[in-house]
Structures are given as structure tokens and as C-alpha cells.
Amino acid sequence: MMNTVSEIINKLQKEGYTEDFNLRPGYIGTSNDHYKLLHDEFIIDKFYRFEGESNPDDEATVYAISSPKYNIKGILVNGGGIYTDDITDELLEALSIRKE
Fold first, then answer.
1. 8 Å CB contact between 27 and 37
2. Around Cβ 19, how many Cβ atoms within 10 Å?
3. What is the mean pLDDT of residues 41-60?
């Protein structure tokens, strides 16, 4: 059983999720912003939630994301909530744990 964020990241990397995605205003970008995935250009293949036992700030969600359009797979780690002003409603909905 995987108990830590780093264990999950290592597992996903072995499965081919090699890009390091970051949340940006209106899109998910690769670390160098070479790819900018809009809300309809990626699929959440799986996710793992980690809840802080004593501190809600320790919460995190690890997303395994693929983009058939760009033929890439990567990981987005989001600490705490994803409800920030910089994220569009479409992106927020896309990250609301649904599979296509």
C-alpha cells in the first residue's frame, strides 16, 4: 500500500507519467510551459488523496493526467484546495474528479 505522496509519484513515473504539471491561471502547464493544457485537452486517469491527520494544510491530491491531443502523461500535485481565484470555472470542473 502506498502511504506517501512521493511513493505515489514514483509509482506513476514508472507507469509513464513523466511530465511535471503545474496549475496555472486557466490551464495546466508543463514545468517549462512548453505544453499548456486547457480544460478539454486532458483526462484525469486516476487520483490519490492524502488527508492531513492533524492539520488540514497537510492535505494533497496527486493527479495522474494524460492528454491524447499532445500524447503526454504527467503528474499534478495539488496541496490543499484547488479553489483559487486564478483558476477558471472550466478548469475547476475538469479537476473535479471525473473520468471521460
1. yes
2. 24
3. 77
